[in-house]
Amino acid sequence: MTEETKKAAPKKPAVKKTATAETESKPTEKAAASETKSARAAAQKKVKTKAPMIVNGRIVVESKAPLHSANHKKGTSPYKISDEEVKVTLIKSACNSIKVHKATIEALGLKKIGQSKIFKKSPALYGMLFRVQHLIKVEEVKK
Q1: 136-141 and 116-120: which strand pairing?
Q2: pLDDT of 128 over the 90 cut
Q3: What proportions of the chain, in percent to the nearest 5, are helix, strand and coil?
Q4: Which of 42, 74, 86, 121 could join 82 via S-S bond, C-beta 3.0 to 4.6 A?
Q5: pLDDT value of residue 53
Q6: Residue 48's pLDDT is what?
Q7: H helices present in 9-89, as ranges
């Protein structure tokens, strides 16, 4: 045979299965299919791990646990507010301060130098006062 006839030679037809061969091979195919499904599921579980999140060139790990465990009902205050009071007086202007300090002074309701307000003690209030302690004077109010 010449090289041209070898190239043009038809391919062998695919082997057809008989009915008996199909019925005999089904149980083994099912077993093999279930094994491959479980193997695929295991492989997918391994693949589903998240890649680490990168923010500003640093790896950020997401926490699985909640940051706090307190579940407050709607309308309840998460902070314990005391009956004791403090007097907060603005002694310096906040005009050359950073935005956060300006916003805190505004949230306290202080607008002019020398203006005072009376607040009940709470952890939230003390967090605000700590942030702007260089701009205010704090005094305890006696009853």
Answers
A1: unpaired
A2: yes
A3: 40, 15, 45
A4: 121
A5: 81
A6: 56
A7: 19-47
Whole-angstrom distance, CA of residue 117 vs CA of residue 107 = 12
Q: What is the pTM of this model?
A: 0.48
Q: Which domain holds residue 134?
A: 85-141
The answer to whether residues 79 and 123 touch, using CB atoms and an 8 Å cutoff, is: yes
Dig out the tokens for 114 from the structure. 């020398």
* Cα(44)–Cα(94) distance, integer angstroms: 57
- Whole-Å CA distances, 53 to 59, 63, 104: 6, 12, 32
Q: Mean pLDDT throughout 123-137? A: 94
Q: Look at residue 36 and tell me if it is in a domain.
A: no
Number of domains in the chain: 1
Q: Residue 113: which residues within 8 A CB-CB, separation 6 or more?
A: 90, 91, 92, 93
pLDDT in tens, 15-41: 655 555 445 545 566 556 666 767 766
More confident residue, 49 or 90: 90
Nearest to 108 by CA among 125, 123, 96: 125
Q: Is residue 126 part of a domain?
A: yes
